[in-house]
Amino acid sequence: MPTTTIRLTPNPPHQTLTLDIPTEGVALQGRIRVPGDKSISHRALMLGAISTGETTIKGLLLGEDPRRTAACFQAMGAEITDLEAEWVKVKGLGLGNFQEPVDVLNAGNSGTTLRLMLGLLASQPDCCFMVTGDASLRSRPMSRVVKPLEQMGALIWGRQSNSLAPLAIQGQLLHPIHYHSPMASAQVKSCVLLAGLMSQGRTTVTEPLLSRDHTERMLQAFGADLAVDPENRSVMITGPSQLQGQTVIVPGDISSAAFWLVAAAITPGSELVIENVGVNPTRTGVLEALIKMEANITLENERLVTGEPVADLRVRHSRLKGCRISGDLIPRLIDEIPILAVAALFAEGATVIRDAQELRVKESDRLAVMASQLSCLGAQVTELPDGLEIQGGALLRGAEVDSYTDHRIAMSLAIAALRATGITRIQRAEAAAVSYPNFQATLEEICHQ
Ligand code: S3P
Hints:
Strand content: 25-35%
Number of domains: 2
Number of helices: 14
Strand order of the largest sheet: 17-18-16-3-29
CATH topology of the largest domain: UDP-n-acetylglucosamine1-carboxyvinyl-transferase, Chain
Shape: globular
Structural class: alpha/beta
Bound molecules: shikimate-3-phosphate
CATH architecture of the largest domain: Alpha-beta prism
């Protein structure tokens, strides 16, 4: 019987993940947990750092992205204890009390760190900040947050008309605005709300479609004067508003659970329970899309944990059907489109994903990269200006593919490789650690022959 090989090998300065998994006789079985939610982890560290008193956080994601957030706020004087501890403690500075950092703040690969932090930096009078990121982040658009901040009176400089990092910020007392965001982006919404926290009066953000609402929930829990008008997709914050440190229990990240939901759904004989997953309705688009594809997924033990809905997810293999994924579903599954494209390969008929042009400015151009890398494995995928068209019923064969240093691409390709004949080698696979440091260990744990 052919054996299973899952191996990460150095390929300086990167690493290669080799997967040689028999397509017959391997099933995914077990009860697992996924790492803490990335969005909630960033916000817990940031709000902890600007509150008075102590914030204690359990289940923090120890991925590279939240580590960058922690390091940036430590550089401005916040005391954050050992990130590996069961309960991470953040001793807050209180609003408006950042120390001017003596060096450039580096957000690494993390758009959430940079865009949310900009709202706080721009509204901190008398301090000057320099911010940057890695090659991917330095090419991603910052004008979407710089523009509303400039409307509030912020002073920000950067390449290409202040739209690309590195950025320099001269903190100012900002004035409130009503911002009609042209895009459904939680990073834009959160940036403006965090700037509004320090401004005198009411700042409102209205978005075209509802994006994830973790910032609103957490700001309310920390005592901000914040109101939500769901009918008009508007959030109002009245500043200045002092926050008080809280306890945050971070649920498992549904974006990380999505890899296992798809892996089990497409692998005959599989049944997995993924415990303790955040099921905030602004994030569960992936469940809706998979259920529309006739995946067998049930929610068990639904509960509320420090203001966020949580459940255990049970998934069993089933025959999937192609479907259309578009419109207001897109912001609620924006990070899961690469892995949904993998699910679509094993569905009956075609799957069409539209209205997802935002994917072109994520950690990589996820539409171009998924189309090209899945094609290397023998899939029939057409790249559309704002989406993908994927033909189901694929017979994949192992090949050499590349993550393009994008964590979600690396992991999506690994799940596709589960169902490919022969050996798949994923170059620059270390990218997975941005959001899922133990991805490979979990894959080995649940792969049964
Ligand atoms: C995030 C918002 C989303 C998402 C990103 C995390 C957040 O980005 O893709 O991974 O934590 O606010 P956009 O706001 O750009 O849609």
